[in-house]
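To whoever picks this up:

The parser on our side crashed when reading a file containing two proteins. I've narrowed it down to the boundary between the first structure block and the second sequence. Both blocks are reproduced below exactly, byte for byte. First block:
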Amino acid sequence: MKLLIVDDEQLAREDLTYVLQDCLPQAEILAAGNKTDALALCQSNPIDIAFLDVEMPDISGLELSKELRSIRQDINIIFTTAYSQYALPAFKLYASAYLMKPVCREDILEALENLRFPCVTEVKKLRVQCFGNFEVFYDGQPLLFRRSKAKELLAYLISLHGSSATSSEICAVLWEDSGTPEKQKNYLRQLISELRSTLETCGMEDVLIHNRNSYAVNPKKLDCDLYRALEQESNATVSHRGEFMKQYSWAEFWIKEK
């Protein structure tokens, strides 16, 4: 998603950029301080939403919205202003929202829910290979894990298909009888922290779900060969038997249960 901020005040542009980054961390945010730069950016970029200040020295936001629409008909216009008297003219121009400065996160989120032209964005997912060796990819590149146990932890959670596992259950699977329970749980906390950091490097930290003393993954964030197989007929996994996450001994018991 591409966003355009147009405001003649630099501080206002920076403040709005900060709020938008919080609401839409994966969006590309462009900014302009005048009409010429705004039109040039709209010409060269498929802008989804333009956030326009109403009162600017060289042009009003109301007039600028018409010129932006002449370039991109389905652009969403959101006015940001300190003046309430322009609200009616703004909505006559089919604005998606009219927000009073300083714009807050809640205002932005509400406006995004009510866009005149809904933005269709590609949902990024981790691609997960479970049959054969377990591997994880993002944007075509392998995801790198500092410790093999952090990768194995993710593999086990993915094998549960969204179901939760307690810390004790995870420790029993990953280490069996090796080490004391206290040492295992301390190590697990380190692995969870490392796994979360690894996922954060590609903006996929919400793959991992933590509820009290249990952990799970969000299947909707994964493009996984295992999940596709489970959605098909029960014999869909027959050709893969004996090859499921073959680097992990516990995976043998998983496939037998299926």
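<<boundary where parser fails>>
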Amino acid sequence: MPLEIVTIPCLSDNYAFLLHSTQTGETALIDAPEAGPPLAALAHRGWKLTEIWLTHHHWDHIDGVAELKEATGAKIIGAASDAARLPPLNHALSNGDTYQFAGHDVQVLDVSGHTVGHIALYVPAANAVFTADSLMALGCGRLFEGTPEQMWHSLSKLAALPGETLVCSGHEYTASNASFALTIEPQNPDLLARIADIEQLRAAGQPTVPSILSLELATNPFLRAHLDTVKAGVAMPTAEDAAVFGEIRRRKDAF
């Protein structure tokens, strides 16, 4: 592949990602919870940081920007609609935009819900989408600013990407998300198999992120609110999909 992805643990349970072109040497960092781990990862590989892509304004995704900018001179890229709450941007993006990184398309998706103005960045050449706190491994972000309808619409956009897409999300919440998912679909064989894999990974100190979209579609209750089996499981057999999603999110908030 012409683009390489590196997963970087940050803070206590965050992830940032490096996206590196083996052809041009350009490197993007997706989100910047802190500066130290990304700088160490860059130095270890001998890569130069050229861009920082920001998904949303929460502190645990932007706190390292100023130090990284000073150390590397990287340009900062983020959502035009959230620019007032982000570090100063060199390039502001909107839903539906496509821009170039190292000669490859980067598609911008508004995935408001966790926050309003949250974006995801889909890079077909890397077979990856950087979702931060929208779609997460076996979960989705809490709705701090958006509505269930907004988040269901956002997740539906992501669900429509190719099934083999890597979902590069922002936190190591997978084990707790799995425990909750069992309360929605306790007999889901794909979920039960995934939980066994998660337990092995975490026991070995390995991340569960990125995940694969096809696996999320088979196991993540927040992507499955349209299914009759899930609707029946939450006693909402005739409800609209977004309403079922909202009930699942409400249950997770209280879990």
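After patching the parser it read the second block fine. Residues 189-203 form the longest helix (15 residues). The CA atoms of residues 108 and 121 lie 5 Å apart.
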